[in-house]
Amino acid sequence: MAKGKRRAVEEPVDKASLQKQRRMIKNRESAARSMNANRLKRKRLKEKKEVLDENEWWDKIGKMKMLGKKKPCL
Q1: Which residues have CB under 8 Å from 7's CB, separation 6+?
Q2: pLDDT tens, residue order, the chain (74 aa)
């Protein structure tokens, strides 16, 4: 089966199969929520890192100016 492809949903023949199918659906939905939450967390951390990196760069430029250097050597 190719990645991202799901088998066609078939009618379960007994109660155990029905429960298993429901559990699989719930698990798939839970995994999707978890992946989305992790994706959002990584995005926020990346944005925060970019801000911190920019602040660090400006701090270095400020120190260079105080020391009388013309170009920052990053």
Answers
A1: 1
A2: 456 666 666 666 799 999 999 999 999 999 999 999 999 999 999 999 999 988 888 888 777 777 776 655 55
Residue 32 pLDDT: 98
Alpha-carbon distances, residue 51 vs 28, 40, 44, 71, 73 (angstroms): 35, 17, 11, 21, 20
Q: Is 58 helix (H, G, I), strand (E, B) or coil?
A: helix
The structural domains of the chain, with segments of one domain joined by +, span: 19-65
Whether the Cβ atoms of residue 21 and residue 9 lie closer than 8 Å to each other: yes
